[in-house]
Design brief:
The complex is a heterodimer of chains A (125) and B (325).
Chain A lengths: L3 H12 L4 H31 L6 H25 L7 H36 L1
Helix pairs in contact in A: 2-3
Chain B lengths: L24 H31 L6 H4 L13 H25 L3 H31 L4 E4 L3 E4 L5 E4 L4 E4 L1 H11 L5 E6 L2 E6 L5 E4 L2 E4 L7 E4 H9 L1 E6 L14 H32 L2 H5 L3 H26 L1
Antiparallel strand pairs in B: 1-4, 1-10, 2-3, 4-8, 5-6, 6-7, 8-9
Classes of the chains: A mainly alpha (125), B alpha+beta (325).
Chain lengths: 125, 325
């Protein structure tokens, strides 16, 4: 059986070509993102070393700073390195929408359910 | 459908030879795979979050567990993990440069950058092997107290330690305490006026003195205890020792879940890196043989690139949730 999907789809792969000049611009962006990701990681490590865990407001703020920095890094990796930013908006949404939902769930676990679980754990033990 | 046999022209229908997402079948399937794979990692991190919430302050602090560098004495909190992160970010960059070269049909460029990505992948795997080895062997190990003890730490503060609390040895002493606690006949303990010494006889005779012990090594308020106070703690030991970690015991936390999550999350990620390197090597060889040149495009590089970036993406989350927070 002839695989028509490959023949038809080849045109999309062919259309993804770009010129030397466009390539230079893309490379410039890649190096910028590299520098940014490295900088964020360095700041994260620095903060991890300097600030100690405790039940104060500062630690909560630091924790959220870590989460925000992580999401910024993840955003750059997905949108630039994985080129999702250059894809059609319907593909972008099909991939990102489940994650927005899932991240909401994770936060719910972390903020509400984690402590509920902790309370029942303390009651049982 | 009764009576309605109208034929719709194919160009109006979906299925008229166009992808609604304007991407190839292979690339879309790679994205769908990554979405489901990310949910697996998400599940692991959620379980980790639950486990962590139940142990509160007893959960080890990342910068106190991961602070060793290969071949160096002293403490370098998170530096090694940061180095691993940096290696992975750089290999992600070389991968995206390979994809970019592919879009220009630049075979030499693809080979150069893909080759660099493979080297980066091996560097990461090697680093992880060392980290696992260090985690498994531990940094001196510790023992549990058989009874409640009150000691004065080097900073003058007094601590009352509960029964079963862990006290940690330095790695010279712990290295000999391990065979000694396991009943090795060649390792002998001597106590001369409070100076505790362990000596291992055999081909390479060596000994280590108990100079000091550490309290709260992996949690908040780490303290060092030395001299007579350390001897007091040593004499109050139970026969429960823990050295490093395996699937049953761990010196890092009384709750075994910490070591288990470390092994499972970083192991699952490491397996992804390993399979990514294998896939990259296959694609490298295909590019070398001119398969993509004949095909007219280098989309396979882009698809494997998606997988490779995903591995980096997961590490960004593991780094934050396992090591930093």
């Amino acid at each position: 059986m002839e695989r028509d999907d490959l023949i038809v789809n080849d045109s999309y792969a062919m259309a993804a070509h770009h010129s030397e000049e466009a390539g230079a611009a893309i490379r410039k962006k890649i190096w910028f993102v590299t520098a940014l990701l490295t900088l964020i990681t360095a700041v994260e490590v620095g903060m991890g070393v300097i600030f100690k865990r405790s039940e104060t407001f500062t630690w909560t703020a630091i924790k959220w700073t870590f989460i925000v920095m992580t999401l910024v890094k993840a955003g750059y990796i997905v949108l630039v390195f994985m080129h999702l930013g250059d894809e059609r908006s319907n593909l972008k949404r099909a991939i990102i929408a489940p994650y927005v939902l899932f991240i909401c769930y994770l936060l719910f676990i972390a903020i509400t359910e984690g402590f509920g679980h902790l309370n029942s754990f303390n009651t049982l033990h | 459908m009764a009576g309605n046999t109208e034929t719709i022209p194919t160009e109006v229908l979906w299925g008229g030879g166009q992808s609604p997402f304007s991407v190839t079948y292979g690339k879309m399937m790679m994205w769908f795979f990554l979405v489901s794979d990310a949910l697996t990692f998400g599940g692991l991190l959620t379980a980790y979050g639950f486990a962590r919430a139940t142990s509160e302050d007893a959960w080890p602090i990342g910068e106190q567990v991961f602070r060793a560098l290969p071949g160096l004495e002293g403490q370098y909190p998170l530096i090694y993990v940061a180095l691993m992160t940096f290696i992975l970010i750089v290999s992600s960059v070389t991968m995206v440069l390979a994809v970019e070269a592919g879009h220009r049909n630049d075979k030499a460029g693809v080979l150069k950058w893909l080759g660099a990505t493979i080297v980066g992948g091996f560097f990461f795997l090697g680093s992880q092997a060392w980290e696992w080895s260090h985690f498994i062997h531990g940094a001196g190990g510790g023992f549990q107290l058989a009874k409640e003890v009150t000691v004065t730490a080097d900073n003058g503060e007094t601590f009352t330690l509960a029964q079963n609390e862990m006290v940690f040895m330095d790695h010279h002493f712990g290295h000999l305490a391990e065979p000694w606690s396991e009943g090795d006949a060649n390792t002998v303990l001597t106590d001369e006026g409070g100076h505790i010494t362990l000596t291992q006889y055999g081909k390479h005779e060596h000994s280590a003195q108990l100079h000091g012990l550490t309290l709260n090594k992996y949690v908040e308020n780490e303290q060092h205890v030395s001299g007579a106070e350390a001897t007091k703690l040593w004499n109050a030991r139970s026969d429960v020792f823990a050295f490093g970690a395996n699937l049953e015991d761990s010196e890092y936390a009384l709750q075994q879940t910490y070591a288990n999550f470390f092994f499972f999350i970083t192991g699952f990620h490491g397996f992804h890196v390993f399979s990514g390197v294998v896939i990259n090597i296959i694609i490298f060889l295909m590019a070398l043989n001119g398969v993509f040149e004949r095909r007219g495009h280098y989309e396979m590089v882009e698809k494997t690139g998606l997988y490779w970036h995903f591995v980096d993406l997961v590490w960004v989350f593991v780094f934050t949730f396992f090591y930093l927070i």
